[in-house]
């Protein structure tokens, strides 16, 4: 019976890019939340960490907390998660505020919700518990959901590697720009860099057709055209 229950727990289809994000209700450090109902019209970054009172996670939470307003200016909300209790979360976040200084950050108050997931209900839905890494801790996962509550990006990090929050912010900016302008962003793109415009359907007159429409557009070949960004 126990083996059957374990098998049933493991047969959970993980959400993929483009899928509706799994709905959930959860108890957090900021009260109860109901996703996606409470986040209509917002981008959401849901990220898990292995455990409270661990050094890598502490640096990540401080960085996210300091950048929270930057994400909010991008219509993006943060939600943290670990398989710890509310009491552990609160004690850890209080320690961060009162005792920890890192890279010039100090007196940092974490004001985004952190989910208590003792039964692993949310973390299993999102594939944040991976047995080969740990059966009792969530891995370092990031799920980015758009205002329609669809999964738009998924990042997994090993336990030993801290996340790059500037890269996560860059992804949000790039995806929002792509949605708004129907463009794509090239490798190592940063806001203000030139962007890729969709290739024309016909290769024969692609260059002439694109350039005749917009003097800010240029092609490297028939399949690869860029639009200059205004600096």
Query: What structural class do helix, strand and pairing data support?
Result: alpha+beta
Percent of residues in helices comes to 25-40%
Q: How much β-strand is present in the residues?
A: 15-25%
* CATH domain class of the largest domain: Alpha Beta
Query: Strand order within the widest sheet?
Result: 5-4-3-6-7
The H/E string reads: HEEEHEHEHEEHEHEE
Mean pLDDT: 87
Radius of gyration: 21 Å
Topology, number of strands = 10
Give the biggest beta sheet. 5 strands, mixed
Overall description:
This protein is an alpha+beta fold and 231 residues long. The protein folds into two domains: 2-163, Glutaredoxin; 182-227, no CATH class. The chain is 31% helix and 22% strand. It has helices spanning 2-10, 55-72, 86-99, 121-125, 165-181, 206-213, and strands at 24-28, 31-35, 43-48, 76-82, 114-116, 140-145, 151-157, 195-197, 217-221, 224-227. A five-stranded mixed beta sheet has the order 5-4-3-6-7, covered by helices on one side. Strands 8-10-9 form a three-stranded antiparallel beta sheet, covered by helices on one side. Residues 1-9 and 201-205 have low confidence and may be disordered.
């Amino acid at each position: 019976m126990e083996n059957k229950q374990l098998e049933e727990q493991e047969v959970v289809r993980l959400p993929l890019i483009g899928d509706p994000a799994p709905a959930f209700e959860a108890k957090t450090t900021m009260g109860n939340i109901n996703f996606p109902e409470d986040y209509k019209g917002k981008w959401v970054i849901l990220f898990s960490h292995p455990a409270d009172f661990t050094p890598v996670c502490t640096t990540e939470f401080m960085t996210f907390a300091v950048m929270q307003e930057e994400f909010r200016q991008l219509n993006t909300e943060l939600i943290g998660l670990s398989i710890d209790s509310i009491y552990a979360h609160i004690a850890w976040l209080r320690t961060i505020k009162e005792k920890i200084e890192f890279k010039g950050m100090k007196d940092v108050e974490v004001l985004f919700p952190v989910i208590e997931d003792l039964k692993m209900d949310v973390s299993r839905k999102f594939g944040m518990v991976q047995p080969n890494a740990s059966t009792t801790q969530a891995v370092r996962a990031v799920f980015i959901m758009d205002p329609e509550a669809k999964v738009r990006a998924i990042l997994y990090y090993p336990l030993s590697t801290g996340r790059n929050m500037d890269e996560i912010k860059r992804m949000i900016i790039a995806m929002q720009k792509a949605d708004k302008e129907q463009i794509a962003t090239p490798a190592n793109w940063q806001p203000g860099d030139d962007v890729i415009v969709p290739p024309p359907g016909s290769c024969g007159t692609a260059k002439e057709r694109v350039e005749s429409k917009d003097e800010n557009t240029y092609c490297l070949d028939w399949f690869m055209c860029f639009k200059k960004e205004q600096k």
